[in-house]
Amino acid sequence: MSGMESFSEERLEEEWKSRMMNEGKGMELNFFSQFFDVKGTIECIKQHQFKRIALQFGDEWMKYSPKVAEWLRKETNANIFILGDTSFGSCCVDEVAAEHLEGDVIIHYGRACLSLTTRLPVYYVFGMGSINLNDFESKLEETLSLMEGKKDVILFYDPFYQHCLNKLQPKFENRLRWTFIEGGLRQVVTLQEGKSDTFFGRRIEKRESEEEIDWMDPQIQSNTNFIWVGNEGTTLNNLMMTFNLSQFYSYSPTTLVFRQENINVNRALMKRYYLVQQAKDAEVIGIVVGTLGVGRYMDMIEYLKKVIRDCGKQYYTFIVGKLNVAKLANFQEIDIFVLVACPENSLIDSKDFYKPIITPFELEVALLSGREWTGRYITDFSKLLEVDASTNSSSKVEEEETRFSFISGTLKKRTINLEKKTLLKANS
């Protein structure tokens, strides 16, 4: 199932027809304007005096782009252009394409990974999906009554439904923690590292006079339940992999099913652990650039190059756009690929590819001496860039390490340059 089933063209058409039947044909333009936040977008453009506006639509919503562009152009007299095809996933803001056209701002429509950007301001339009609030409220009440022994219950949601869920926050604010998604205009910011309360662009509510909580702590995770509102997809998978000691519940606004998630996360983690073992044996590693818009992606690439060099291995860097089997099959000399991408596109099931594809976190566990597989999992590479200066080594000695390969069943040796090696916190 795709990452955001609710963002499909069919869902939008159904919503549109339902509104027209219930409220009359005169509501058609009004709903369209609300769904694409035309009024808010126009106000933002005028307030900040943007002159060149880049509109980025996912494939599902591209058919509506001419109408949206026409409305914005008519009301603002700005130079409006549509980014017809993104280089990577449409969830990532395509800053490079917008910069080529000298854009002042990007209006991003639809599914978004919410990764921080560093070059252009972004205005997010998530759409307006509908929820049967009475049904959700009654099932939420029933589920919360089963969680009385838990210290915390945290609600994550698809931003497609944010406008509806906000209505319920006052009623449940004392019984669960809300997560906050910053919509509207996001200005270019200096990236702040070490935010322990922010995951996948969502900030977990911090209560008054409460000290900072490390949500990656195993004890805290095991005593916390999570509720996801939205359809199945990559965001839910990322959350379940990250908080793999917690119990998850989900509510689908499409099917009205509120259920306990029984996906075997341990089995998924063991599959990823096998990929780590393969990375340990790899001699030639391909670094695949899967984003040009996520903040600090170049820092991550340079860091991976250091890690690979310090282990005496070779690397090649590839920019191939959207991944497919045929593209990567051209590089037979590569033993394994590591993909630098946003969290929504990082976990690749590489069973159909000729060579495995791993994440930066998995490569770090495989190659860094002193890093062990603990069961904790990180899909957001920005959390790997929290450098602890106290662990940096200035020694110029080389260390030879011998280990047993679970893949080949033999002993292998490698030389590690301690002068260059950088150990990371990475919540481990």
Approximately what portion of the residues adopt beta-strand conformation?
Answer: 15-25%
Q: Would you tell me the structural class of the helices and strands?
A: alpha/beta
Instruction: Return the average pLDDT rounded to an integer.
Output: 81
Give the low-pLDDT segments: 1-7, 20-27, 190-194, 387-397, 418-428
Q: What's the count of strands?
A: 18
Largest sheet composition: 7 strands, mixed
Strand order across the largest sheet? 8-9-6-5-10-11-12
Overall helicity: 25-40%
Task: Tell me the distance between the termini.
Answer: 32 Å
Quick one: overall form? Answer: globular
Radius of gyration: 23 Å
Q: Given the structure, what is the number of helices? A: 14
Topology:
Layout: H1 9-23, H2 28-35, H3 38-48, E1 52-57, H4 65-76, E2 79-83, H5 95-100, E3 105-109, E4 122-125, H6 133-145, E5 152-157, H7 162-165, H8 169-172, E6 177-180, E7 184-186, E8 198-199, E9 202-204, H9 218-222, E10 224-229, H10 234-242, E11 247-252, E12 257-260, H11 265-281, E13 284-289, H12 297-310, E14 314-318, H13 325-328, E15 336-340, E16 357-358, H14 360-367, E17 398-404, E18 411-417
Parallel strand pairs: 1-2, 1-3, 3-4, 5-6, 5-10, 10-11, 13-14, 13-15, 15-16
Antiparallel strand pairs: 4-7, 6-9, 8-9, 11-12, 17-18
Helix pairs in contact: 3-4, 11-14, 12-14
